[in-house]
UniProtKB/TrEMBL annotation:
InterPro entries: Ala_racemase/Decarboxylase_C, DAP_deCOOHase_LysA, De-COase2_C, De-COase2_CS, De-COase2_N, Orn/DAP/Arg_de-COase, PLP-binding_barrel. The lineage of its organism: Bacteria, Bacillati, Bacillota, Bacilli, Bacillales. Residues 40-297 form the Orn/DAP/Arg decarboxylase 2 N-terminal domain. Belongs to the Orn/Lys/Arg decarboxylase class-II family. LysA subfamily. It comes from the Bacteria. Keywords: Amino-acid biosynthesis, Decarboxylase, Lyase, Lysine biosynthesis, Pyridoxal phosphate. The modification N6-(pyridoxal phosphate)lysine is found at residue 66. The gene is lysA. Pathway: Amino-acid biosynthesis; L-lysine biosynthesis via DAP pathway; L-lysine from DL-2,6-diaminopimelate: step 1/1. Substrate binds at residues 294, 331, 335, 363, 391. One of its GO terms (molecular function) is diaminopimelate decarboxylase activity. It comes from Metabacillus endolithicus. Pyridoxal 5'-phosphate binds at residues 249, 291-294, 391. Its EC number is 4.1.1.20. This is Diaminopimelate decarboxylase.
Length: 440
């Protein structure tokens, strides 16, 4: 069994996280429950920042908040001095409501609306990561009447790098919905129009090659491709970027099949690649920005479920059902994602009887883990699924009108509720009654 962060087994034989017994958490807050190990998030945040400091490079580490966003999460990120990548009006609203400084917020999105851009500009976000030509027009339209300073932007490019990960989560290849083609002349057209703009300041370039990536080659190749172009742009446009943002995507360990590098190793390789390019070109070192999401929060999250019904298909398989499923973690259904799990109330017992963990949604594909070795399970046992901190709660939904779970933070022996469990009343809060046309 692989225990992440502060997780350990206590003297009752229970899983403990952040010094808090998970069975006590399940009793106090109910299940399904997302539990975050705050010390592990802090450790990850600090190690990203420190690795840039050690290499003497000016940097911003922006937490990709799509991995898990909530007011308390953003406040934790602010406490740790990171920046924030948001990708919608909703994430931006949450960030502002949490008191996060707008100057360290970067707005992403491949189809930002006028309203979202206006909201970002009104709040004075640190930069807009511009994705397409329409967005350039929108920014100019919105900012033409405001006499304020120019809007700082990065142009997002697709460097033609195929990251080795699931097809749905690669983003750097040329045939992608995101960004300007780096290799087909689009980005030059965008640079030309932004440099001529009276209302936009071109701060630099952004690229993100995908997610859950285990080697550094793709990042290095992307950086080299971007800098080859920067060399041309220096001649052609007299433009050199103040900022080069190389995105996120650093892989984590979900199961023993995964062999991630330490997060800081990616930073070192990226910075080395940039330094080499910069010294060959004789330009000054730009600020390097990165946007880790999963690698900051993924293994800090554990989901607790209560076990309910079971079904045996003779000679084939035993299904064990939990009180959640694809409504709180859609990743197995969407990406065939794999997880490890234990019985949190009986961790020390032999986990040697394979069962398949089924969710409660009315969907055959709602299977959380296939062939998971557990002790003989009984109703009301608590299953702890590891590494659910990224894209778990944030992709949760109300399929089958299942209320979304609660989220707690644990640290130094204390727990705090940071997202309340949805109630049935919450589920119908936006529903309106039928205006009936049938006369009785
Ligand atoms: C633009 C951008 N930045 C950062 C991230 C964060 O990726 P990850 O959670 O894999 O670090 C993503 C998601 O893939 C993204 O699309
Ligand atoms: N949501 C995805 C990753 C997408 C990242 C956003 N570009 C996951 O669960 O792995």
């Amino acid at each position: 069994m692989f225990l992440h962060g502060t997780s350990k087994i206590n003297d009752k034989g229970h899983l403990e996280i952040g010094g808090v017994d998970t069975i006590q958490l399940a009793n106090e807050y109910g299940t399904p429950l997302y539990v975050y190990d705050v010390a592990l998030i802090r450790e990850r945040a600090r190690s990203f920042k420190e690795s840039f400091e050690k290499m003497g490079v000016k940097a911003q580490v922006a937490y990709a908040s799509k991995a898990f966003s909530s007011v308390a999460m953003f406040q934790l990120i602010e406490e740790e001095g990171l920046s924030l990548d948001v990708v919608s009006g909703g994430e931006l609203y949450t960030a502002i409501a949490s008191g996060f400084p707008a100057s360290r917020i970067h707005l992403h999105g491949n189809n930002k609306s006028r309203a979202e851009l206006k909201m970002a500009l009104d709040h004075g976000v640190g930069c807009i990561v511009v994705d397409n030509f329409y967005e350039i027009e929108l920014i100019e339209e919105i900012s033409k009447d405001t006499a304020g300073s120019k809007v700082p932007v990065l142009l997002r490019v697709t460097p033609g790098v195929e990251a080795h990960t699931h097809d749905y989560i690669t983003t750097g290849q040329e045939d992608s919905k995101f960004g300007f083609g780096l290799l087909n002349g689009q980005v030059e057209q965008a640079i030309d129009s932004v440099l001529k703009s009276k209302s936009i300041h071109l701060l630099g370039i952004h690229c993100h090659i995908g997610s859950q990536i285990f080697d550094t080659a793709g990042f290095v190749l992307a950086a080299e491709r971007v800098f080859e172009k920067i060399k041309e742009w220096k001649e052609r446009f007299s433009f050199t970027p103040e900022v080069v943002n190389l995105g996120g995507g650093f892989g984590i360990r979900y199961t023993e099949e995964d062999e991630p590098l330490p997060a800081t190793f990616y930073v070192e390789k990226i910075v080395d690649a940039v330094k080499t390019q910069v010294s060959e070109m004789g330009i000054s070192m730009p600020e390097i920005w990165i946007e880790p999401g999963r690698s900051l929060v993924g293994d800090a999250g554990t989901t607790l479920y209560t076990i309910g019904s079971q079904k045996t298909v003779p000679n084939i398989r035993q299904y064990v059902a939990i009180d959640g499923g694809m409504s709180d973690n859609i990743r197995p259904a969407l990406y065939q994602a794999k997880y490890e799990a234990v019985l949190a109330n009986r961790v020390t017992e032999k986990h040697d009887k394979p069962v398949s963990i089924a969710g409660k949604c009315c969907e055959s594909g709602d299977m959380l883990i296939w062939d998971l070795p557990l002790p003989e399970v009984k109703p009301d046992d608590i299953l702890a699924v590891f590494c659910t901190g990224a894209y778990g709660y944030s992709m949760a939904n109300n399929y089958n009108r299942i209320p979304r779970p609660a989220v707690v933070f644990v640290e130094n022996g204390e727990s705090q509720l940071v997202v309340k469990r949805e109630s049935f009343e919450d589920l119908i809060v936006n529903d309106l009654p039928l205006k009936s046309k049938v006369t009785k």
